[in-house]
Amino acid sequence: MSKTATKATLVVTQIQSPIRRQAYQRATLIGLGLNKMHRSRVLEDTPSVRGMIRKVHHLVSVKEQS
Description:
This protein is of the alpha+beta class. The protein has 2 helices and 3 strands, in the order βαβαβ.
């Protein structure tokens, strides 16, 4: 049996600008690898990434990938 498990991933796309947002929200977007509108990143589905997404859920769009 193989030990390599397929990990779920998330496609996170920035849909709103961080202008006039609090500093922690801008920092969270940068932490997710997003810094310009309509950019996307494929990230592992972990509790820490989910927590970051929850902080800026109004600025990003999330799609699950398997």
